[in-house]
Design brief:
By secondary structure, this protein is α/β, with parallel strands linked by helices. The protein has two domains: 117 residues, Urease, subunit C, domain 1; 295 residues, TIM Barrel. Helix 10 runs parallel beside helix 11, helix 14 crosses helix 15 and helix 15 crosses helix 16.
């Protein structure tokens, strides 16, 4: 449809960082056609626009880009919040994931995507189990998704139960083959709204040979690559012991790095890692909310200073981008002990254009500019938390005080999916009820595995 936003404040996130006041934006089909003075665009498009939205209390932002998420982990909420990264990944979350059927993954992902859209996320990079079913959820809800299937050549059972690494190239290639099948099945669906990546699981559970093989397949298929990078202290130590290199140099020597690479978390980085990522024009997904919950803060300022592109991700059990944005600024200041950095514009850039660049789509989304795809978020600044609102505090109000409840509208490719603060792309109440039922059933099945481990048995 065609939509005219009028009387709006427009945060363009263009190269000049322009914020336009008392302005209008005309969207037709999936594109931003024109941005300019309200009176002029109203005269030009007011009679032909299928919908005119008075945004006098609204602020338009580019759709937020979530560069790292596991939507199926919605089923883990409340069970993996108060443990270490290691215990979460190889303990609680593993038990729950192994207890989930394809239907469970579809139901959990569908609700996670609705939560994302309600917090202004229009694009997400997502991995988990039963990814074909997750893809169905992405198609149905209307979000723009980059799906990937995790794989490894380390034996997960030995690692979980004995803390021992044993690598098998045969295992790794089978996993890579499954990941390639996902790409060949889902990549390009819905007119390109659904795309894929290749994503080995974690840097300590893959060998350099598997990384090299993954790069070869990614280049053949024309897709990007991603991996969980140094999210706990054990990962870089294992890389050194097993392969003689820290993660960054290890990936560089395997030919895995490049402008289409995104490393998720990147908490325990050494200078050599940062230099390798910067040399290869790589991106990182900073996941501040869940990292802080587990007592970690990534060296974001060091990465950005080195020239690494840093976007924002939600990771597990949590899909609210406004909270991610808020936490990103707080933990940055805690790490550098300086309340004046980063500027709110830096955080907004990370949530929009930087994320788009990480996924290689910054020519299409990430900013509000004529000719770009209409991925748009309208925040309701008439709320108490933004008052007083003046021209000088538009960005500061969002970064420090923004909340998902204030997302009045979310548009993906010109299609309105959140309208008047409600998800209108489907029956949200039914989606919520199904996720509750499925979650209860998954927890009951997972308890068997937890009890076996607690009693000393094998799960």
């Amino acid at each position: 449809m065609s939509v005219l936003f009028e009387n709006a404040t427009i945060v363009t996130v263009n190269s000049g960082g322009d914020i336009l006041h008392d302005s209008a934006m005309y969207v037709k089909e999936d594109r931003i056609v024109e941005i300019g003075d309200t009176a002029r665009l109203k005269a030009k498009y007011g009679d032909t626009a299928e919908r005119v939205i008075d945004a006098k209390d609204g602020v338009l932002f580019p759709g937020f880009v979530n560069t790292h998420s596991h939507s199926v982990a919605l089923a883990c909420r409340g069970r993996a919040e108060d443990v270490s990264n290691w215990d979460a990944i190889w303990g609680v979350m593993g038990s729950i994931r192994d207890s989930m059927t394809g239907d469970d993954c579809y139901v959990a992902s569908r609700l996670a995507y609705v939560e994302m859209l309600r917090s202004g996320i229009t694009t997400v990079a997502d991995s988990g189990a039963h990814m074909l079913r997750v893809g169905e959820a992405a198609i149905e809800t209307g979000i723009r998704a980059y799906l990937h299937q995790n794989f490894r050549d380390a034996d997960a059972t030995l690692l979980r139960d004995e803390g021992r690494y044993e690598y098998s190239m045969e295992r790794g290639m089978k996993g890579l083959g499954d990941a390639v099948d996902l790409v060949e099945t889902m990549h390009g669906k819905e007119g390109g709204r659904i795309r894929c990546l290749l994503g080995p699981q974690t840097i300590d559970t893959v060998s350099p040979k598997l990384l090299a093989a993954t790069r070869g397949e990614a280049d053949r298929l024309g897709v990007g690559v991603t991996i969980h990078l140094s999210q706990n202290e054990r990962e870089p130590r294992q890389c050194l012991e097993a392969w003689g290199d820290l993660p960054g140099p290890m990936m560089e020597k395997a030919g895995f790095l490049g402008p289409d690479f995104t490393g998720a978390h990147a908490i325990f980085l050494h200078d050599e890692d940062i230099q390798a990522l910067a040399r290869n024009d790589c991106s990182v997904s900073h996941n501040p909310q869940i990292n802080a919950k587990r007592a970690h803060i990534a060296p974001v300022s060091d990465m950005i200073e080195a020239g690494i592109n840093v976007g924002l991700g939600s990771d597990n059990m949590f899909y609210d981008m406004l909270e991610v944005i808020k936490t990103a600024g707080i933990v940055w200041r805690l790490r550098v002990k300086d309340p004046t950095v980063p500027h709110p514009s830096t955080i907004v850039q990370m949530a929009t254009m930087n994320g788009a660049r990480a996924l290689g789509i910054d020519d299409a989304v990430g900013s509000l500019e004529e000719g770009k795809v209409a991925d748009v978020v309208m925040m309701d600044y008439a709320r108490a938390r933004y008052t007083p609102r003046v021209r000088e505090n538009v960005l500061s109000n969002l970064v420090h005080f923004g909340a998902a409840d204030d997302v009045a509208l979310t548009m993906v490719g010109g299609r309105i999916l959140v309208d008047d603060h409600r998800y209108v792309g489907g029956n949200e109440e039914a989606i919520l009820e199904e996720a509750q039922r499925s979650g209860e059933e998954v927890w009951e099945r997972a308890k068997v595995d937890w009890e076996l481990r607690t009693s000393g048995g094998k799960g």
